[in-house]
Description:
The protein has helices spanning 2-6, 12-30, 45-59, 71-80, 86-109, 121-131, 136-161. It is mainly alpha-helical and 162 residues long.
Amino acid sequence: MIHNVLCRKRDAKVVATDAAEMRQAIAREKGENARWDLKYAAGGLIDLEFVAQHLQLVHAAEQPEILDTNTARVLDNAWRLGLLPAQDADILRPAVRLYHNLTQVLRLCLPGPFDPKTAGKGLLDLLCRAADLPNFAALDAHLAETQQKVRASFNRILGQAK
């Protein structure tokens, strides 16, 4: 039954508008300016999830192979099916993997929010290894750049549908 609901034809403009409005509501409620809040930061996991959900809702009627419960696999499917432009796939696919790697480390190591200013060297080094970067300054800069690019892709993909 869920598969049938997901595969209904939908107006891409309506889906894009709804997704953008929901993202804005989350930003108002949770904020989006804390870079290391990997989920809610502008260009963070929430943006990736909204892109994946948007792509599924818009394209599943014609290409049900896009459907998956995992954001990374949805993005991979969308790229493989030609539904996600290479320009955006080259940003979004590595970003989701980076965010998941960093999130797993933080969940395992901390009981609460991550603050790089108070984190120990061991944790910072572990995050760098998870991101395959040489030091925390490089990781922090890479994260900022990735979030900026993800937000631009989010706006481009949802904006194209409007």
